């Protein structure tokens, strides 16, 4: 009889211990599930925010892009004393905003005044847009360029909606006192890079000739790079529309 009572007591005690352990286990499961859920939600929110930032950054890049307007015009000059020294010494094209978006800083690193050697370095100018030149013989990472705003303009060098900018890339220099670049020694190669670290075709470089393909890349401070690729014609004229 006593033995049966002890066994019943032990059974009740064991059931009590089992219930407590089960409760602890259930609580642990709930706590772990809560922590896991919070982690998953936090990770999802963080990933969503990062995705949104990436989308906005992509939109800003697109909004700051440039596109060419109209033709690419090349000008012939004589870098010597004979017609064999004729080459393209500058290239012009017009740019505008690709879409109605952020303005693009086109502060020019050079100016021109037609009174001396052109182009002239713009002292103290902090330019963000860089133009590079490449053909089969050479790569120039930073070539001199000047700007003229056409038509309606806000009076600064920020290219905004509705504005157009004519860019002139100077592959060679127009010499002092030479009004006609087609005269003997009307233009000259660059002897070295200037204080901006820029230069056109150097004395050790190769001049553009007929049927030469080249690429200009306009690289603004923000937005995508604009590549302009053209081929020189079979005959060099004073002014050429490179289609």
Molecular structure report:
The chain has 243 residues and is an alpha+beta fold. The protein folds into two domains: 1-63; 66-242, no CATH class. 26% of the residues lie in helices and 31% in strands. It contains one helix and 15 strands. Strands 8-10-2-1-15 form a five-stranded antiparallel beta sheet, with no helix packed on it. The protein is elongated, with a radius of gyration of 35 Å.
Spell out the key features of this protein.
single chain, 243 residues, alpha+beta, 2 domains, five-stranded antiparallel β-sheet, four-stranded antiparallel β-sheet, 1 helix, 15 strands, elongated
Question: How large, in whole angstroms, is the Cα Rg?
Answer: 35 Å
Helix content: 25-40%
Number of structural units classed as domains: 2
Query: Helix and strand string, N-terminal first?
Result: HEEEEEEEEEEEEEEE
Q: Short summary of the structure?
A:
The chain is α+β, with helices and mostly antiparallel strands and 243 residues long. Helix content is 26%, strand content 31%.
């Amino acid at each position: 009889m006593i033995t049966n009572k002890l066994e019943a007591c032990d059974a009740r005690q064991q059931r009590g211990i089992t219930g407590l352990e089960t409760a602890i286990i259930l609580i642990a499961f709930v706590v772990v599930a809560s922590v896991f859920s919070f982690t998953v939600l936090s990770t999802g929110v963080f990933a969503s925010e990062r995705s949104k930032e990436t989308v906005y950054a992509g939109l800003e890049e697109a909004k700051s892009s440039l596109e060419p307007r109209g033709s690419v015009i090349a000008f012939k000059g004589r870098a010597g004393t004979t017609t064999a020294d004729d080459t393209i010494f500058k290239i012009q094209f017009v740019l505008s905003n690709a879409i109605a978006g952020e303005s693009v800083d086109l502060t020019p690193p050079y100016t021109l005044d037609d009174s001396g050697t052109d182009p002239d370095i713009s002292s103290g100018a902090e330019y963000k847009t860089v133009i590079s030149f490449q053909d089969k013989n050479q790569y120039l990472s930073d070539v001199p360029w000047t700007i003229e705003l056409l038509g309606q303009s806000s009076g600064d060098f920020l290219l905004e909606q509705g504005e157009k900018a004519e860019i002139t890339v100077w592959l060679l220099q127009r010499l002092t006192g030479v009004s006609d670049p087609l005269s003997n020694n009307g233009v000259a190669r660059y002897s070295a890079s200037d204080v901006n670290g820029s230069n056109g075709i150097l004395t050790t470089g190769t001049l553009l000739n007929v049927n030469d393909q080249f690429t200009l890349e306009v690289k603004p401070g923000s937005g995508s790079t604009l590549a302009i690729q053209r081929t020189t014609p079979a005959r060099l004229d004073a002014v050429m529309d490179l289609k």
